[in-house]
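Continuing the series of single-chain predictions for the mutant panel. This is the parent chain; the variants come on the following pages.
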Amino acid sequence: MIRKTQTVAALALTAAICAPAAASAQDQTRLGAFKFWSAFTADAPDGKVCWAATAPISTDYSGDSRGDVFLMVSMWPSRGIDNEISIISGYEFDEKRTAQAKIGSETYSFFTSTDGAWLETRREEASMVKSMKAGAKASITGHSNTGSRSNDSFSLLGFTAAFNAAKKACS
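Parent structure:
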């Protein structure tokens, strides 16, 4: 689960940034807001990390409570990581089930662990980034460890600009 470990720090940074009161205390830089997406960079112990992130524009969740929800793409040059797509659900996933993302006619399956989800391969990541650049909306469905189901919709307006800003900052 190396991929999970590599993304946890970026997820924590994104959660902190998207909470306005906490943002001033963090050591990251917001590169800009691009419609529904934002781009960020921060220094990690082993080098710079950059990412593009967004929160859902609509959500349908049958559970009792839920934390922050994000869709993001991370770049960790020092680790050779490019285009790592991840989801933070705001609840503990049922790790026996996958989360599903749908963009247009394309569907992507994410493995889940705690409150995060990741694609299995770099090839899937490249394919999904391409779909995100061309698409208008991503719909993500997940299942909590208590049996609740979520369906979150994310606008892809501004994704390409945020993605390019994050890529440039980490090149």
